[in-house]
Amino acid sequence: MTMQAETLPKTHPFQAEVAELLRLMVHSVYSETDVFLRELISNASDACDRLRYEAIARPELIVDGAPLAIRITPDAKAQTLTISDTGIGMDQQELIDNLGTVARSGTRAFLSRLNEAKDGTSLIGQFGVGFYSAFIVADRIVVVSRRAGASEAWVWRSSGGDGFEIEPASEEDAKRVTRGTEIVLHLKPDAKRYLETYEIERVVKTYSDHILFPIELKTADAEPRQINAASALWHRPKSELKPEDYTQAYRSIAGAFDEPAMTIHYKAEGRQSYAVLLFVPSTEPFDLFDPNRKGRIKLYVRRVYITDDAGLLPGYLRFARGAVDSEDLPLNISREMLQNNPQVEQIRKGITGRVLTELENLADKDAEAFAKTWTTFGKIVKEGLYEDFERRDQLLALCRFDTTAGDTRSLKQYIADFKPNQTEIYYLVGESAERVKSNPKLEAARARGVEVLLLTDPVDAFWTSAPLGFEGKPFRSLSQGDVDFELIPRTDQGADAEPKPDEGEETTIVAAVKAALGERVSDVRASKRLTDSAACLVADSRGRDRELERLLARQSRGSGTKPILELNVRHPILKMLSRAKADGRDDEVADLSALLFEQAQILDGEVPNDPAQFAARINRLVARGLA
Ligand SMILES: Nc1ncnc2c1ncn2[C@@H]1O[C@H](COP(=O)(O)OP(=O)(O)O)[C@@H](O)[C@H]1O
Ligand SMILES: [Mg+2]
Hints:
six-stranded mixed sheet, binds magnesium ion, single chain, 23 helices
């Protein structure tokens, strides 16, 4: 018994998520099946990259064996397609970890989106599901792998389902796979076309032409021949390259499926030489909102891939993808050493500046294209306003805003359209465009035709919390501190419909409301920003703006600062309140005051603390009016 158990291959269950993924692949009616080859070639290329990097410290890993390459072998007789590489390979544990769990974030993102989507198959292409996409075309997969430098090789087998088995490779397998990985796909009946050489060449040309290692096609009756260009696109002159070349390079480097919205390709010469090929995607990459906010620019040193974790762009440009190939960095630089390396810092400065100038150029040359990119990534770029003080002015010049005068307005345009006596840039932060547009805090500005920036991205509450200006004009929030429009002439047929009460009455009204509201507000005062509405809530000029306070309160990081209630003393409601006060109807004063406070909350998108009381109060006041 024991003897037998030892010779049986060890079976392992797939992690539940993998099993779910595989069920989807097996039942997939997905039409763009080509992705599997792209994913397997990309893994083979990564494996070669990793071996080349390890071999910098341990050259014996490479010199003794076959050159780094990827090979595709169709076998019509066996109905198999084999993809092999002479890269780093995997040992037993790595096979279990890498081909049994979902490690990569793209696949995770795919799975989390899967629950929302009705048709999961359409998502496969959008995310790419790595190794597991091989099960789209294969019903059985056999992997033989030998870690570089290891004495033993291992076999991994699976037919999808719930598990895979692993055992030491047979003598024959071990002899064939001297280093790296061989993946044998037993093709499903409807995937047999991938045995045709023209089909394989088509897919490789389309998706993997610029993989840096040679991809060889080996058929039964011929010598292997290379079917990809295998050139580092960034080293080739621009004049030789067509837009399709760039698109393909973008997709292959970024693992993306969309078109690049912007391509940046240049060589920096001087104190440091490096080639740059960067892309701005046209759609959001899946990892855009990963908490680590890291970019994924690949760093090469003289064509040897080092890492995509060198932080070559700041967090607020993390949507850009691509590669930088340095001529000067030492090849044996460790990933850790990259952290504080002054040369890397210089490259980072250089390409950050370049991305920003290219964005500026696009804005100048093609406002529409720029507007599209801004709509997709503007909310990320704005993070730079509080992270990168050095470049703040440059970033502010790039910013486009929705304003009361239209969308995608620049600050230059805003300032050019200043009204007489206007000296400040007005803005209002809020949760959604609709809500901000109907906010009464805009009334005084509207009555004067003064444009207001409507800031509705979550990041807006943060960057506006620092004192800012553009071309010498300070920013000013309409929901914070004192705002005085008196010097700017009104454009809406002049005076208010209602006369202003005299100063004595104003003081009485303000005092009465303040007494009635007590602890709920930090102050009550007559407003200069309202023309039609009765009341609004604003923040103290020294504290946080209301929207930021709300955002932080949601994460229980609010300071609990109380707002200031501003009253439009010309409003009929306040006249009623004034009369009630004079007649000693204190209940009514209390109800009206609370109502003013609560309606101001609602206009800011908040819910009154006690909705039941709020409703009861309205009903009381209505009943009184009708009685
Ligand atoms: N040909 C290969 N050689 C070595 N390791 C591989 C190979 N193919 C896959 N792997 C390992 O399996 C892991 C999972 O692959 P995959 O599902 O494509 O995700 P990703 O490539 O995004 O990490 C890889 O990260 C790698 O560690
Ligand atoms: Mg992969």
